[in-house]
């Protein structure tokens, strides 16, 4: 856990807030899913990074014109991010609220090696179960084919 300046003073604190916003946003399950399903992942991630950079500078009191110049984007784009009119801007604003409600404490859930090992074992167990179920399905399909064949033959005899 690390303390994040919510009202940064100076470049170093802006950088810390910017990174905290990026990390908080990128570790959210809903955002991870949006990234997975995004058609152009690089553009989408770039928008998130720009929105985080813009918000960090805004919280430091930078005017929109300076933010736009520093980030190489138009003032309209920066205003849209800051107002939450873009998806990236909305997500970064939500992440800022998460940080603010946590008192500026950045907490990123990272799995321990024992948790990872447990998950690996569980995955192996589930894969084994799936293989067994696949075998059962194959056997049942073979039996079903025999029953269908028997019924077909029986219907031929009856007619």
Structure at a glance:
With 159 residues, the protein is mainly α. The chain has seven helices and two strands.
List its traits.
2 domains, two-stranded antiparallel ribbon, mainly alpha, 2 strands, 159 residues
Could you please describe the fold and organization of this structure?
- This protein has 159 residues and is mostly helical.
- Helix content is 76%, strand content 3%.
- It has two domains: 2-106, no CATH class; 111-159.
- The protein has helices at residues 11-26, 29-37, 41-59, 64-71, 75-82, 87-101, 113-158, and strands spanning 2-3, 105-106.
- The model has no long low-confidence stretch (mean pLDDT 89).
Major sheet description = 2 strands, antiparallel
Distance between the termini: 79 Å
Instruction: Tally the structural domains.
Output: 2
Give the uncertain stretches in residue-range form: none
Query: Looking across the biggest beta sheet, what order are the strands in?
Result: 1-2
Count of individual beta strands? 2
- Report the C-alpha radius of gyration, rounded: 27 Å
Order of helices and strands: EHHHHHHEH
Topology overview:
Blueprint (H helix, E strand, L loop, with lengths): L1 E2 L7 H16 L2 H9 L3 H19 L4 H8 L3 H8 L4 H15 L3 E2 L6 H46 L1
Antiparallel strand pairs: 1-2
């Amino acid at each position: 856990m690390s303390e994040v300046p919510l009202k940064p003073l100076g470049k170093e604190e802006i950088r810390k807030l910017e990174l905290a916003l990026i990390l908080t946003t990128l570790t959210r399950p809903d955002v991870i899913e949006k990234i997975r399903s995004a058609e152009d992942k690089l553009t989408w991630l770039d928008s998130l990074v720009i929105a985080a950079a813009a918000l960090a500078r805004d919280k430091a009191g930078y005017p929109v014109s300076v933010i736009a110049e520093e980030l190489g984007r138009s003032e309209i784009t920066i205003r849209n991010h800051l107002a939450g009119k873009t998806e990236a801007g909305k997500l970064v604003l939500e992440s800022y609220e998460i940080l603010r409600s946590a008192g500026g404490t950045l907490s990123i859930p990272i799995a321990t090696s024992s948790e990872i090992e447990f998950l690996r074992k569980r995955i192996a167990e589930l894969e084994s179960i799936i293989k067994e179920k696949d075998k059962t399905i194959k056997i049942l399909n073979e039996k079903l084919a025999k029953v269908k064949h028997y019924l077909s033959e029986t219907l031929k005899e009856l007619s």
